[in-house]
C-alpha cells in the first residue's frame, strides 16, 4: 500500500485569552481529526493577540519555557488522545533569551523538541526583533509517526533556502504557521497574493505539498488577511480559505506518488552544488 499523509490547516481569530485560544484550537484539532487528519497546523503565536506591532516591555511576560507551556502540555494530551501530530507555535523563554518557537508534538503526545524561528522580521507593525532572538536550532525536520515534516515559521516562509534545506533533509511536507496581514505604513499594500505565490514556488521547486495557516480578523486595528491554503506537489492550491472564514482545511496526499514525481522532475538530481558558493 502507498504511504499517505492527511494534513490540516487551522484558520481562526484569536482572542487575547491564552486558555480560550488553546480550547478553540483543541476544538479545531478535534474537527480535523474527525476528517481523518494526521497532522494539524495551528497559526503562529495563536495563544494571544499578535503583540509585535509595537515595542512594549510588558509583552515579555507572555513568554514561557517550552516544556511547561500550557499550549504544549494540553495539546500533547490531545495529540495522544486523537493520534495526531500537532506543531505548536509559542513565545518561548529560555533563561534570559526569548524566541519565537515551535514545539513538534508527535501522535503519541511526545514532544520531539523545539524549532526556533530563524528569520526575524523588523518593520512597521511587525517589530519582532525587539521580542525574539534569531533562532539557534537551524532548520529542522521531524520524523513523526505520521510522516517526515518540515516546519518554518512565518517570515521563514519567504526564503527559498529554508524550504530547500528542509526538502534536502527529507521532509514529506512543509508547514508554515503564520501571522500576517495589513501593512500599517501603506494602507494600499496588500501582500496576500505574493505571500501565497512565494510558498507555491517552494512547492514547485521542491515537488512537495505546502500547508500555510494564518490568523484572521481585526486585532486593535491590525487586520490579518487569512487566506490559509494547502498546495499539492505541483504548487496548485487544492483548498483554501478567504479573508474571513474560521475552520479547518484537510487534504490527503499519496507520499509514494510524490516521491516518484520528485525523482522524475530531477530538481535534486541536477543541482550544481559546485556553483553555489555565492549563496553563502
TrEMBL record:
<dbReference type="InterPro" id="IPR017755">
    <property type="entry name" value="N-carbamoylputrescine_amidase"/>
</dbReference>
<dbReference type="InterPro" id="IPR050345">
    <property type="entry name" value="Aliph_Amidase/BUP"/>
</dbReference>
<feature type="domain" description="CN hydrolase">
    <location>
        <begin position="5"/>
        <end position="257"/>
    </location>
</feature>
<dbReference type="InterPro" id="IPR036526">
    <property type="entry name" value="C-N_Hydrolase_sf"/>
</dbReference>
<dbReference type="Pfam" id="PF00795">
    <property type="entry name" value="CN_hydrolase"/>
</dbReference>
<keyword id="KW-0378">Hydrolase</keyword>
<dbReference type="GO" id="GO:0050126">
    <property type="term" value="F:N-carbamoylputrescine amidase activity"/>
</dbReference>
<dbReference type="GO" id="GO:0033388">
    <property type="term" value="P:putrescine biosynthetic process from arginine"/>
</dbReference>
<comment type="similarity">
    <text>Belongs to the carbon-nitrogen hydrolase superfamily.</text>
</comment>
<dbReference type="InterPro" id="IPR003010">
    <property type="entry name" value="C-N_Hydrolase"/>
</dbReference>
<protein>
    <submittedName>
        <fullName>Carbon-nitrogen family hydrolase</fullName>
    </submittedName>
</protein>
Amino acid at each position: 500500500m502507498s504511504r499517505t499523509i492527511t494534513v490540516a490547516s487551522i484558520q481562526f481569530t484569536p482572542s487575547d485569552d491564552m486558555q480560550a485560544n488553546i480550547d478553540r484550537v483543541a476544538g479545531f484539532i478535534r474537527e480535523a481529526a474527525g476528517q481523518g487528519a494526521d497532522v494539524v497546523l495551528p497559526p503562529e503565536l495563536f495563544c494571544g493577540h499578535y503583540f509585535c506591532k509595537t515595542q512594549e516591555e510588558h509583552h515579555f511576560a507572555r513568554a514561557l519555557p517550552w516544556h511547561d507551556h500550557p499550549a504544549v502540555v494540553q495539546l500533547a494530551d490531545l495529540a495522544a488522545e486523537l493520534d495526531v501530530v500537532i506543531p505548536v507555535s509559542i513565545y518561548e523563554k529560555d533563561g534570559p533569551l526569548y524566541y519565537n518557537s515551535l514545539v513538534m508534538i508527535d501522535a503519541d503526545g511526545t514532544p520531539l523538541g523545539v524549532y526556533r524561528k530563524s528569520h526575524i522580521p523588523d518593520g512597521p507593525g511587525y517589530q519582532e526583533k525587539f521580542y525574539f532572538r534569531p533562532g539557534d536550532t537551524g532548520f529542522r525536520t521531524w520524523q513523526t509517526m505520521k510522516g517526515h515534516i518540515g516546519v518554518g515559521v512565518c517570515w521563514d516562509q519567504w526564503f527559498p533556502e529554508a524550504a530547500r534545506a528542509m526538502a534536502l533533509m527529507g521532509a514529506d511536507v512543509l508547514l508554515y504557521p503564520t501571522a500576517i496581514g495589513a501593512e500599517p505604513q501603506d494602507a494600499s499594500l496588500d501582500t496576500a497574493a505574493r505571500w501565497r505565490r512565494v510558498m507555491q514556488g517552494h512547492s514547485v521547486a521542491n515537488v512537495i505539498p505546502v500547508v500555510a495557516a494564518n490568523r484572521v480578523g481585526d486585532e486593535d486595528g491590525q487586520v490579518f488577511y487569512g487566506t490559509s491554503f494547502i498546495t499539492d506537489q505541483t504548487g496548485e492550491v487544492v483548498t483554501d480559505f478567504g479573508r474571513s472564514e474560521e475552520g479547518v482545511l484537510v487534504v490527503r496526499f499519496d507520499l509514494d506518488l510524490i516521491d516518484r514525481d520528485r525523482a522524475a522532475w530531477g530538481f535534486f538530481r541536477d543541482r550544481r552544488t559546485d556553483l553555489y558558493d555565492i549563496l553563502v
